[in-house]
User: Which sequence fits this backbone?
């Protein structure tokens, strides 16, 4: 049988190196890039530079959707606006009553703290950002918001809406930043059970919109309906923000741990605006710890 | 048929990239076909003298930058798919429309499986069969384009 090996193309069909040579070259280059990106974090500046170059393209790509939104806003019916206005008025009245009570309590709290000689809890200023789009990868729970390093955003800041914590800023570009949602499996938040003060760490589930509370023993004092709030011991989230509500507890005999499933309190994926809280104490090198910010260590939290 | 120029290739790739940059959300995001890869495959199969593995790699790097994923992930994947596509490119003339679609589906699945392996290596998680939906929607889009009489091989007589 005649062999087809060594069947080099005639010289005039030759167009540079063969596909295989190119594949080997580019594969090696990609693997080197991936290693540098994943292990050494040298490419943050490169990425930010290219993100700035891509910015005009993104603006053009987003313009149809934005034009649609604006037109829809413009032609919203008057009755709808009036209804919404009334509702907001009522809400404001209720809130202002709460606010007055809050001021009294704050004064009282300050006074008591002074008496105790404890450190003042400093207020955390926040910036309002708009969600531009919900990430490029449908299987990671991330959103891109409209503020970036030019507006003073740094990686690690907490993001929240009016009802609770949404997530954390994990990557910052010049004009936008990426917020990892609390339902992403790489994000962990130190929490406290509101009812009894039990401290633990919650992890996003990753597949659906729920949150896991792993590594707690079978006899742990958590009931369905318990509210989980941030404990504030990490220096990122101020204490007392609502995170989730316990919806189901499975105490399975096969496993030493209880399986606790919670639903996030904040409207994950239902808002256009988020608040980015300024951190009280900034970690040493926020730019380098891009992969480290979402706490990945899955050690069992210490019981109080 | 008009000969293909480099300008056509760059223009269509830019359009595909813009489609990728659109703010997809929810179910649309799950179904979104890989526009850039589809256009790239079209040109690799139709005009292999004008684009090669290097073109695929460059586009992959652009997608990496736009998606904020691990740098080089899409570069490697697109380069590999381009290599496989080019290796069997000459046999494509013998295929009919449906066989071509099958071939494209295999290439799209190859891309997604390579990506999945790379993601698993970098600490990702398996995400169910929904993960492969973009391949299906991609090949459907391919068939729609084929039925609008733009043939990959360029012969109009069937």
Assistant:
């Amino acid at each position: 049988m005649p062999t087809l090996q060594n069947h080099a193309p005639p010289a005039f069909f030759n167009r540079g190196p063969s596909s295989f040579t190119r594949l080997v070259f580019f594969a090696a280059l990609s693997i080197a890039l991936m290693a540098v990106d994943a292990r050494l974090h040298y490419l943050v500046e490169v990425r930010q530079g290219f993100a700035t170059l891509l910015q005009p393209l993104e603006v053009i790509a987003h313009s149809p959707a934005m034009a649609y939104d604006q037109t829809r806003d413009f032609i919203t019916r008057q009755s709808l606006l009036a209804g919404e206005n009334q509702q907001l008025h009522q809400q404001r009245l209720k809130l202002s009553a709460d606010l007055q009570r809050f001021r009294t309590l704050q004064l009282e709290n300050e006074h008591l703290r002074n008496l105790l000689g404890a450190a003042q809890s400093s207020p955390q200023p926040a910036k309002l950002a708009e969600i531009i789009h919900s990430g490029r990868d449908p299987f990671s729970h991330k959103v891109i918001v409209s503020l970036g390093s030019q507006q003073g955003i740094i990686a690690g800041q907490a993001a929240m809406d009016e009802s609770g914590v949404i997530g954390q800023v994990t990557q910052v570009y010049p004009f936008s930043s990426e917020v990892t949602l609390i339902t992403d499996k790489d994000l962990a938040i130190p929490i406290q059970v509101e009812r009894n003060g039990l401290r633990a760490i919650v992890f996003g589930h990753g597949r659906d919109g729920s949150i896991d509370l792993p590594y707690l023993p079978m006899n742990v004092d958590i009931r369905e309906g318990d509210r989980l709030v941030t404990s504030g011991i990490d220096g990122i989230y101020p204490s007392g923000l609502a995170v989730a509500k316990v919806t189901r507890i499975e105490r399975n005999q096969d496993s030493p741990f209880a399986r606790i499933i919670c639903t996030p309190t904040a409207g994950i994926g239902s808002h256009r605006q988020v608040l980015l809280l300024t951190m009280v104490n900034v970690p040493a090198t926020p730019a380098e710890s891009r992969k480290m910010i979402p706490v990945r260590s899955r050690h069992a939290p210490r019981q109080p | 048929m008009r000969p293909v120029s480099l300008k056509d290739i760059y223009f269509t790739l830019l359009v595909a990239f813009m489609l990728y940059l659109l703010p997809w959300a929810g179910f649309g995001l799950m179904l979104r076909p890989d526009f850039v890869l589809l256009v790239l495959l079209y040109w690799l199969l139709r005009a292999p003298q004008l684009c090669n593995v290097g073109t695929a790699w460059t586009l992959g790097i652009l997608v990496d930058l736009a998606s904020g994923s691990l740098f080089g992930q899409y570069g490697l994947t697109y380069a590999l798919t381009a290599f496989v596509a080019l290796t069997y490119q000459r046999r494509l003339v013998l295929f009919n429309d449906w066989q071509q679609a099958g071939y494209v589906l295999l290439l799209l699945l190859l891309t997604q499986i390579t990506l999945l392996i790379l993601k698993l290596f970098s600490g990702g998680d398996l995400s169910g069969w929904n993960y492969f939906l973009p391949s299906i929607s991609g090949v459907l889009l391919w068939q729609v384009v084929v039925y609008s009489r733009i043939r990959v091989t360029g012969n109009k007589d069937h």
In short: The mean pLDDT of chain B is 85. Helices of chain B lie at 6-21, 27-31, 35-46, 53-67, 73-87, 97-121, 133-147.
